[in-house]
Amino acid sequence: MSTQRRPRATVLPTRFNKTSRLLERQIQNIEAELENNVKKLKKNPSEFFKKILGFEPYKYQKELIELFEKNQFLAARWCRQSGKSWTISALLLNYALNHEDCYIAVVGPSWRQTKLNIKRIGYFLRKLPNKEEIQTQRTKINFKNGSTIEAFPNNPDTIRGPTLNVVWWDETNFTANDVELYDSILFTLGTTDGKLICTSTPWNTDSLFWKMCNHKAFSDFARHHVSWEQAQEPNGPLRKGILEKIKHQFGEDQMRWRREMEAEWTEDEDTWLPMSLIAGCIGTKKTCGEDLQPWDTTKGYSGELFAGLDLAQTRDYCVLAVSERINDKLFLRHLKVFQQPTKYATVIGYLKALQDRWEGFQKIRVDNTREGPSVISDMEEAGINNAEGVIFNTSRKSEMASLLKERMMSQRFFYPFLTWEKPYRGDICNEMNIERYELRQDGIICFNHPFGSHDDVWWAIALCVYATIEMKKLELEAFAFG
Protein backbone atom coordinates (compact mmCIF):
# COMPACT_ATOMS: atom_id res chain seq x y z
CA MET A 1 0.00 0.00 0.00
CA SER A 2 1.54 3.29 -1.02
CA THR A 3 1.68 6.26 1.33
CA GLN A 4 1.76 9.87 0.36
CA ARG A 5 4.07 12.29 2.06
CA ARG A 6 2.59 15.42 3.44
CA PRO A 7 4.00 18.56 1.93
CA ARG A 8 6.29 20.44 4.34
CA ALA A 9 5.11 23.76 5.62
CA THR A 10 6.97 26.60 4.04
CA VAL A 11 7.41 30.21 5.04
CA LEU A 12 6.92 32.59 2.20
CA PRO A 13 10.08 34.61 1.56
CA THR A 14 8.16 37.86 1.68
CA ARG A 15 6.70 37.06 5.13
CA PHE A 16 10.10 35.93 6.46
CA ASN A 17 11.85 39.03 5.21
CA LYS A 18 9.16 41.25 6.66
CA THR A 19 9.43 39.61 10.09
CA SER A 20 13.23 39.78 9.97
CA ARG A 21 13.21 43.49 9.12
CA LEU A 22 10.72 44.16 11.91
CA LEU A 23 12.92 42.40 14.50
CA GLU A 24 15.99 44.20 13.22
CA ARG A 25 14.28 47.58 13.56
CA GLN A 26 13.18 46.71 17.11
CA ILE A 27 16.72 45.76 18.06
CA GLN A 28 18.06 48.97 16.54
CA ASN A 29 15.47 51.00 18.42
CA ILE A 30 16.37 49.32 21.72
CA GLU A 31 20.10 49.89 21.16
CA ALA A 32 19.49 53.50 20.11
CA GLU A 33 17.42 54.11 23.23
CA LEU A 34 20.08 52.51 25.45
CA GLU A 35 22.84 54.52 23.79
CA ASN A 36 20.80 57.68 24.23
CA ASN A 37 20.36 56.81 27.93
CA VAL A 38 24.10 56.35 28.29
CA LYS A 39 24.75 59.75 26.74
CA LYS A 40 22.24 61.44 29.05
CA LEU A 41 23.17 59.58 32.24
CA LYS A 42 26.95 59.41 31.98
CA LYS A 43 27.17 63.01 33.23
CA ASN A 44 25.56 61.81 36.47
CA PRO A 45 27.66 58.89 37.79
CA SER A 46 25.14 57.78 40.43
CA GLU A 47 22.32 57.57 37.87
CA PHE A 48 24.70 55.96 35.38
CA PHE A 49 25.56 53.27 37.93
CA LYS A 50 21.90 52.67 38.72
CA LYS A 51 20.24 52.69 35.27
CA ILE A 52 23.09 51.49 33.03
CA LEU A 53 25.43 49.38 35.15
CA GLY A 54 22.64 47.91 37.27
CA PHE A 55 23.55 48.84 40.85
CA GLU A 56 22.53 51.76 43.03
CA PRO A 57 25.45 53.19 44.99
CA TYR A 58 25.15 53.45 48.75
CA LYS A 59 25.51 56.76 50.57
CA TYR A 60 29.24 56.36 51.28
CA GLN A 61 29.85 55.38 47.65
CA LYS A 62 28.08 58.55 46.50
CA GLU A 63 30.32 60.51 48.85
CA LEU A 64 33.37 59.01 47.15
CA ILE A 65 32.00 59.91 43.71
CA GLU A 66 31.56 63.52 44.78
CA LEU A 67 35.05 63.70 46.29
CA PHE A 68 36.56 62.26 43.12
CA GLU A 69 34.78 64.86 40.97
CA LYS A 70 35.79 67.83 43.14
CA ASN A 71 39.38 66.94 44.07
CA GLN A 72 42.62 66.17 42.27
CA PHE A 73 43.96 63.87 44.99
CA LEU A 74 41.88 61.40 46.98
CA ALA A 75 42.79 58.78 49.61
CA ALA A 76 40.02 56.25 50.31
CA ARG A 77 40.49 54.09 53.39
CA TRP A 78 37.74 51.47 53.27
CA CYS A 79 37.16 48.22 55.11
CA ARG A 80 37.14 44.88 53.34
CA GLN A 81 34.05 43.76 51.41
CA SER A 82 32.67 47.31 51.23
CA GLY A 83 32.69 47.49 47.41
CA LYS A 84 35.86 49.56 47.04
CA SER A 85 37.16 48.01 43.81
CA TRP A 86 33.64 47.65 42.44
CA THR A 87 32.92 51.36 42.92
CA ILE A 88 36.23 52.64 41.52
CA SER A 89 35.96 50.34 38.48
CA ALA A 90 32.54 51.76 37.63
CA LEU A 91 33.77 55.30 38.31
CA LEU A 92 36.73 54.97 35.94
CA LEU A 93 34.51 53.52 33.22
CA ASN A 94 32.19 56.50 33.59
CA TYR A 95 35.15 58.89 33.45
CA ALA A 96 36.51 57.27 30.27
CA LEU A 97 33.13 57.60 28.54
CA ASN A 98 32.87 61.26 29.55
CA HIS A 99 36.36 62.37 28.52
CA GLU A 100 37.76 61.95 25.02
CA ASP A 101 41.36 60.89 24.51
CA CYS A 102 42.05 60.44 28.23
CA TYR A 103 44.60 57.93 29.49
CA ILE A 104 43.72 56.15 32.75
CA ALA A 105 46.24 53.96 34.57
CA VAL A 106 45.59 51.27 37.18
CA VAL A 107 48.53 50.37 39.44
CA GLY A 108 48.95 48.34 42.62
CA PRO A 109 51.28 46.04 44.56
CA SER A 110 51.50 43.64 41.61
CA TRP A 111 50.54 43.46 37.96
CA ARG A 112 48.32 40.50 38.77
CA GLN A 113 46.28 42.71 41.10
CA THR A 114 45.87 45.49 38.54
CA LYS A 115 44.83 43.05 35.81
CA LEU A 116 42.05 41.81 38.09
CA ASN A 117 40.76 45.37 38.27
CA ILE A 118 40.78 45.62 34.47
CA LYS A 119 38.68 42.46 34.50
CA ARG A 120 36.19 44.14 36.87
CA ILE A 121 35.86 47.08 34.50
CA GLY A 122 35.38 44.63 31.64
CA TYR A 123 32.40 43.14 33.48
CA PHE A 124 30.61 46.49 33.35
CA LEU A 125 31.38 46.88 29.64
CA ARG A 126 28.93 44.07 28.87
CA LYS A 127 26.10 46.33 30.02
CA LEU A 128 26.89 49.05 27.48
CA PRO A 129 25.41 49.40 23.97
CA ASN A 130 27.77 49.00 21.01
CA LYS A 131 30.22 47.21 23.26
CA GLU A 132 31.72 45.61 20.16
CA GLU A 133 33.24 49.02 19.41
CA ILE A 134 35.27 48.81 22.62
CA GLN A 135 38.52 46.85 22.34
CA THR A 136 39.12 44.80 25.48
CA GLN A 137 42.39 43.04 26.30
CA ARG A 138 43.75 41.50 29.49
CA THR A 139 45.68 44.64 30.41
CA LYS A 140 44.02 47.38 28.36
CA ILE A 141 40.62 48.73 27.29
CA ASN A 142 40.39 51.08 24.28
CA PHE A 143 37.25 53.18 23.78
CA LYS A 144 35.75 54.61 20.60
CA ASN A 145 36.29 58.16 21.86
CA GLY A 146 40.04 57.61 22.05
CA SER A 147 40.22 57.00 25.79
CA THR A 148 42.21 54.12 27.30
CA ILE A 149 42.26 52.31 30.64
CA GLU A 150 45.43 50.27 31.14
CA ALA A 151 46.92 48.14 33.92
CA PHE A 152 50.55 48.84 34.80
CA PRO A 153 53.01 46.80 36.87
CA ASN A 154 54.48 48.17 40.08
CA ASN A 155 57.47 49.73 38.38
CA PRO A 156 58.22 53.46 38.71
CA ASP A 157 60.20 53.42 35.46
CA THR A 158 57.20 52.09 33.52
CA ILE A 159 54.62 54.46 34.98
CA ARG A 160 56.85 57.48 34.32
CA GLY A 161 56.70 57.01 30.53
CA PRO A 162 53.11 57.77 29.41
CA THR A 163 51.19 61.02 29.94
CA LEU A 164 48.26 60.13 32.19
CA ASN A 165 45.00 61.87 33.09
CA VAL A 166 43.90 59.61 35.96
CA VAL A 167 45.75 57.08 38.11
CA TRP A 168 44.03 54.57 40.37
CA TRP A 169 46.53 53.22 42.87
CA ASP A 170 44.87 50.21 44.52
CA GLU A 171 46.09 48.71 47.82
CA THR A 172 48.47 51.62 48.25
CA ASN A 173 49.46 50.60 51.77
CA PHE A 174 50.67 47.18 50.55
CA THR A 175 52.82 48.54 47.73
CA ALA A 176 56.57 48.13 47.92
CA ASN A 177 58.75 51.14 46.95
CA ASP A 178 55.68 53.37 47.45
CA VAL A 179 57.57 56.68 47.64
CA GLU A 180 59.39 56.11 44.37
CA LEU A 181 56.18 55.02 42.64
CA TYR A 182 54.38 58.10 43.97
CA ASP A 183 57.10 60.40 42.60
CA SER A 184 56.72 58.78 39.18
CA ILE A 185 52.93 59.16 39.28
CA LEU A 186 53.20 62.86 40.12
CA PHE A 187 55.66 63.28 37.27
CA THR A 188 53.30 61.76 34.69
CA LEU A 189 50.26 63.66 36.01
CA GLY A 190 52.13 66.97 36.02
CA THR A 191 51.50 67.91 32.39
CA THR A 192 47.78 67.04 32.45
CA ASP A 193 46.91 68.28 35.95
CA GLY A 194 45.42 64.80 36.31
CA LYS A 195 43.74 62.98 39.18
CA LEU A 196 45.13 60.41 41.61
CA ILE A 197 42.87 58.17 43.68
CA CYS A 198 44.56 55.92 46.24
CA THR A 199 42.56 53.12 47.86
CA SER A 200 43.59 50.64 50.54
CA THR A 201 42.88 49.05 53.85
CA PRO A 202 45.45 50.10 56.47
CA TRP A 203 48.69 48.20 56.94
CA ASN A 204 51.93 49.73 58.27
CA THR A 205 52.13 53.25 59.68
CA ASP A 206 55.61 53.99 58.30
CA SER A 207 54.11 54.26 54.83
CA LEU A 208 53.04 56.81 52.27
CA PHE A 209 49.36 55.87 52.53
CA TRP A 210 49.35 56.63 56.26
CA LYS A 211 50.74 60.07 55.48
CA MET A 212 48.12 60.61 52.76
CA CYS A 213 45.40 59.93 55.32
CA ASN A 214 46.95 61.68 58.33
CA HIS A 215 49.94 63.95 57.72
CA LYS A 216 49.57 67.69 57.26
CA ALA A 217 52.09 67.60 54.40
CA PHE A 218 49.40 65.76 52.40
CA SER A 219 46.54 68.13 53.24
CA ASP A 220 45.80 68.50 49.51
CA PHE A 221 44.40 64.93 49.62
CA ALA A 222 40.67 64.57 50.16
CA ARG A 223 40.18 61.75 52.67
CA HIS A 224 37.40 59.21 52.93
CA HIS A 225 37.05 56.54 55.62
CA VAL A 226 34.53 53.67 55.67
CA SER A 227 34.34 51.09 58.47
CA TRP A 228 32.23 47.95 58.69
CA GLU A 229 29.58 49.86 60.63
CA GLN A 230 28.95 52.18 57.68
CA ALA A 231 29.02 49.36 55.15
CA GLN A 232 26.64 46.91 56.83
CA GLU A 233 23.16 46.33 55.46
CA PRO A 234 20.87 48.10 54.72
CA ASN A 235 23.41 50.91 54.20
CA GLY A 236 26.01 48.71 52.51
CA PRO A 237 26.72 45.22 51.14
CA LEU A 238 27.99 43.67 54.39
CA ARG A 239 25.42 41.21 55.69
CA LYS A 240 25.25 40.08 59.28
CA GLY A 241 26.08 36.49 58.31
CA ILE A 242 29.21 37.59 56.44
CA LEU A 243 30.36 39.67 59.40
CA GLU A 244 29.96 36.68 61.70
CA LYS A 245 32.04 34.52 59.34
CA ILE A 246 34.79 37.14 59.20
CA LYS A 247 34.83 37.41 63.00
CA HIS A 248 35.09 33.62 63.25
CA GLN A 249 37.94 33.56 60.73
CA PHE A 250 39.91 36.27 62.54
CA GLY A 251 39.37 34.59 65.91
CA GLU A 252 40.95 36.65 68.69
CA ASP A 253 43.18 38.56 66.28
CA GLN A 254 41.79 41.96 67.24
CA MET A 255 44.55 43.80 65.39
CA ARG A 256 43.50 42.25 62.10
CA TRP A 257 39.82 43.06 62.76
CA ARG A 258 40.78 46.65 63.48
CA ARG A 259 42.84 46.93 60.28
CA GLU A 260 40.56 45.14 57.86
CA MET A 261 37.08 45.85 59.19
CA GLU A 262 37.44 49.12 61.10
CA ALA A 263 39.98 50.39 58.54
CA GLU A 264 42.22 51.72 61.29
CA TRP A 265 45.97 51.32 61.77
CA THR A 266 47.42 49.12 64.49
CA GLU A 267 50.89 48.72 65.93
CA ASP A 268 53.01 45.61 65.37
CA GLU A 269 53.30 45.00 69.12
CA ASP A 270 54.42 41.37 69.56
CA THR A 271 54.26 40.16 65.95
CA TRP A 272 57.39 38.40 64.74
CA LEU A 273 57.46 39.98 61.27
CA PRO A 274 56.86 43.76 61.17
CA MET A 275 54.28 44.99 58.66
CA SER A 276 56.76 47.23 56.84
CA LEU A 277 59.08 44.24 56.36
CA ILE A 278 56.22 42.13 54.98
CA ALA A 279 55.18 44.83 52.48
CA GLY A 280 58.79 45.32 51.42
CA CYS A 281 59.16 41.66 50.38
CA ILE A 282 56.34 41.70 47.83
CA GLY A 283 58.09 40.81 44.60
CA THR A 284 58.08 43.55 41.98
CA LYS A 285 60.36 44.58 39.15
CA LYS A 286 61.92 47.15 41.46
CA THR A 287 62.35 44.98 44.58
CA CYS A 288 63.54 41.70 43.08
CA GLY A 289 63.85 42.08 39.30
CA GLU A 290 60.48 40.63 38.28
CA ASP A 291 56.79 41.14 38.97
CA LEU A 292 56.21 37.86 40.77
CA GLN A 293 53.24 35.77 39.68
CA PRO A 294 52.27 32.34 41.06
CA TRP A 295 53.15 29.48 38.77
CA ASP A 296 50.45 27.74 36.77
CA THR A 297 50.21 24.23 38.22
CA THR A 298 49.12 22.82 34.84
CA LYS A 299 52.39 23.87 33.20
CA GLY A 300 55.87 22.44 33.42
CA TYR A 301 58.72 24.35 35.08
CA SER A 302 62.27 23.59 36.10
CA GLY A 303 64.59 25.16 38.61
CA GLU A 304 66.17 24.72 42.03
CA LEU A 305 62.95 24.15 43.94
CA PHE A 306 62.27 23.73 47.66
CA ALA A 307 58.99 22.90 49.39
CA GLY A 308 57.51 23.22 52.86
CA LEU A 309 54.49 21.19 53.94
CA ASP A 310 52.53 21.95 57.10
CA LEU A 311 50.22 19.02 57.78
CA ALA A 312 46.76 19.16 59.35
CA GLN A 313 43.43 17.41 58.87
CA THR A 314 40.40 18.93 60.59
CA ARG A 315 40.96 21.88 62.94
CA ASP A 316 43.77 23.51 60.95
CA TYR A 317 44.63 23.61 57.27
CA CYS A 318 47.19 21.61 55.35
CA VAL A 319 49.41 24.02 53.38
CA LEU A 320 52.11 23.50 50.75
CA ALA A 321 54.61 26.24 49.83
CA VAL A 322 57.12 26.00 46.96
CA SER A 323 59.98 28.41 46.32
CA GLU A 324 62.71 28.67 43.70
CA ARG A 325 66.28 29.66 44.47
CA ILE A 326 67.99 31.90 41.93
CA ASN A 327 71.40 33.44 42.73
CA ASP A 328 70.97 33.05 46.49
CA LYS A 329 67.49 34.62 46.44
CA LEU A 330 64.25 32.76 47.08
CA PHE A 331 61.04 33.39 45.16
CA LEU A 332 57.73 31.92 46.33
CA ARG A 333 56.27 30.22 43.25
CA HIS A 334 53.30 28.32 44.65
CA LEU A 335 51.07 28.28 47.70
CA LYS A 336 48.30 25.72 48.16
CA VAL A 337 45.83 25.74 51.06
CA PHE A 338 43.94 22.44 51.07
CA GLN A 339 40.25 22.18 51.83
CA GLN A 340 39.16 20.70 55.18
CA PRO A 341 38.94 17.87 56.07
CA THR A 342 42.20 16.92 54.44
CA LYS A 343 43.13 13.41 53.42
CA TYR A 344 46.87 12.89 53.37
CA ALA A 345 46.50 10.69 50.30
CA THR A 346 45.16 13.75 48.44
CA VAL A 347 48.08 15.89 49.60
CA ILE A 348 50.65 13.25 48.66
CA GLY A 349 49.06 12.80 45.25
CA TYR A 350 49.11 16.57 44.65
CA LEU A 351 52.76 16.81 45.72
CA LYS A 352 53.74 13.88 43.51
CA ALA A 353 52.07 15.49 40.49
CA LEU A 354 53.95 18.74 41.07
CA GLN A 355 57.23 16.88 41.51
CA ASP A 356 56.80 15.14 38.15
CA ARG A 357 55.61 18.27 36.35
CA TRP A 358 58.27 20.58 37.79
CA GLU A 359 61.20 18.15 37.50
CA GLY A 360 61.62 17.48 41.21
CA PHE A 361 62.47 19.24 44.46
CA GLN A 362 65.87 19.71 46.03
CA LYS A 363 64.31 19.25 49.46
CA ILE A 364 60.81 18.96 50.96
CA ARG A 365 60.58 19.78 54.66
CA VAL A 366 57.48 18.33 56.32
CA ASP A 367 56.03 19.05 59.75
CA ASN A 368 55.54 15.52 61.09
CA THR A 369 55.34 16.41 64.78
CA ARG A 370 51.96 14.71 65.09
CA GLU A 371 52.11 12.06 62.36
CA GLY A 372 55.66 10.80 62.95
CA PRO A 373 57.90 8.97 60.45
CA SER A 374 55.00 7.16 58.77
CA VAL A 375 54.02 10.14 56.63
CA ILE A 376 57.55 10.37 55.21
CA SER A 377 57.40 6.63 54.45
CA ASP A 378 54.09 7.13 52.65
CA MET A 379 55.65 9.83 50.52
CA GLU A 380 58.61 7.67 49.62
CA GLU A 381 56.32 4.78 48.66
CA ALA A 382 54.39 7.19 46.41
CA GLY A 383 57.62 8.07 44.61
CA ILE A 384 58.24 11.46 46.25
CA ASN A 385 61.94 12.16 46.64
CA ASN A 386 63.95 14.22 49.14
CA ALA A 387 61.22 14.52 51.80
CA GLU A 388 62.46 15.11 55.33
CA GLY A 389 60.49 15.35 58.57
CA VAL A 390 60.78 18.24 61.03
CA ILE A 391 59.66 18.01 64.65
CA PHE A 392 58.23 21.32 65.84
CA ASN A 393 59.88 21.78 69.23
CA THR A 394 60.62 25.22 70.70
CA SER A 395 64.20 25.45 69.52
CA ARG A 396 63.39 24.22 66.01
CA LYS A 397 60.54 26.71 65.58
CA SER A 398 62.82 29.51 66.77
CA GLU A 399 65.47 28.46 64.26
CA MET A 400 62.99 28.40 61.36
CA ALA A 401 61.36 31.70 62.33
CA SER A 402 64.74 33.41 62.70
CA LEU A 403 65.90 32.15 59.31
CA LEU A 404 62.72 33.40 57.63
CA LYS A 405 63.07 36.84 59.21
CA GLU A 406 66.76 37.06 58.34
CA ARG A 407 66.09 36.17 54.69
CA MET A 408 63.38 38.84 54.49
CA MET A 409 65.49 41.52 56.20
CA SER A 410 68.40 40.84 53.84
CA GLN A 411 66.04 41.01 50.82
CA ARG A 412 66.64 37.38 49.88
CA PHE A 413 63.04 36.11 50.03
CA PHE A 414 60.18 37.50 47.95
CA TYR A 415 56.59 36.49 47.27
CA PRO A 416 53.74 37.57 44.99
CA PHE A 417 50.90 39.72 46.32
CA LEU A 418 48.62 36.71 46.77
CA THR A 419 44.93 36.74 47.69
CA TRP A 420 42.52 33.82 47.75
CA GLU A 421 38.85 33.12 48.51
CA LYS A 422 38.90 29.37 49.26
CA PRO A 423 38.98 27.46 51.54
CA TYR A 424 38.83 30.77 53.43
CA ARG A 425 39.36 34.37 52.44
CA GLY A 426 43.02 35.24 52.93
CA ASP A 427 46.02 37.17 51.65
CA ILE A 428 49.76 36.75 51.93
CA CYS A 429 50.41 39.90 53.99
CA ASN A 430 48.02 39.09 56.83
CA GLU A 431 49.19 35.47 56.87
CA MET A 432 52.79 36.62 57.29
CA ASN A 433 51.71 38.92 60.13
CA ILE A 434 49.84 36.25 62.15
CA GLU A 435 52.68 34.84 64.25
CA ARG A 436 53.32 36.33 67.70
CA TYR A 437 56.33 35.78 69.93
CA GLU A 438 57.22 35.94 73.60
CA LEU A 439 60.69 36.07 75.10
CA ARG A 440 60.85 33.91 78.23
CA GLN A 441 63.02 34.64 81.26
CA ASP A 442 65.44 31.89 80.22
CA GLY A 443 66.02 33.64 76.86
CA ILE A 444 63.98 31.16 74.78
CA ILE A 445 61.57 32.60 72.20
CA CYS A 446 58.10 31.03 72.13
CA PHE A 447 55.72 31.42 69.21
CA ASN A 448 51.95 31.49 69.12
CA HIS A 449 49.03 32.91 67.18
CA PRO A 450 45.69 34.43 68.29
CA PHE A 451 43.09 31.90 69.40
CA GLY A 452 40.74 30.96 66.59
CA SER A 453 43.15 32.04 63.83
CA HIS A 454 45.44 29.85 61.70
CA ASP A 455 49.20 30.00 61.20
CA ASP A 456 49.49 27.07 58.77
CA VAL A 457 50.48 29.26 55.82
CA TRP A 458 53.14 30.94 57.97
CA TRP A 459 54.80 27.69 58.99
CA ALA A 460 54.55 26.16 55.51
CA ILE A 461 56.48 29.16 54.18
CA ALA A 462 58.96 28.95 57.07
CA LEU A 463 59.51 25.25 56.28
CA CYS A 464 59.99 26.12 52.62
CA VAL A 465 62.75 28.59 53.47
CA TYR A 466 64.20 26.20 56.04
CA ALA A 467 64.47 23.53 53.33
CA THR A 468 67.30 25.53 51.75
CA ILE A 469 69.74 24.86 54.62
CA GLU A 470 71.00 21.73 56.29
CA MET A 471 69.19 20.59 59.41
CA LYS A 472 71.38 19.89 62.41
CA LYS A 473 72.71 16.33 62.45
CA LEU A 474 71.71 15.88 66.07
CA GLU A 475 68.00 16.13 65.28
CA LEU A 476 68.33 13.95 62.21
CA GLU A 477 69.82 11.16 64.37
CA ALA A 478 67.19 11.63 67.08
CA PHE A 479 64.50 11.52 64.47
CA ALA A 480 65.88 8.40 62.81
CA PHE A 481 65.96 6.43 66.07
CA GLY A 482 62.64 7.85 67.43
Automatic annotation (TrEMBL):
InterPro entries assigned to the protein according to its UniProt record, in alphabetical order: P-loop_NTPase (IPR027417)
Domain of life: Archaea
Protein name: Uncharacterized protein
Organism of provenance: miscellaneous Crenarchaeota group-1 archaeon SG8-32-1
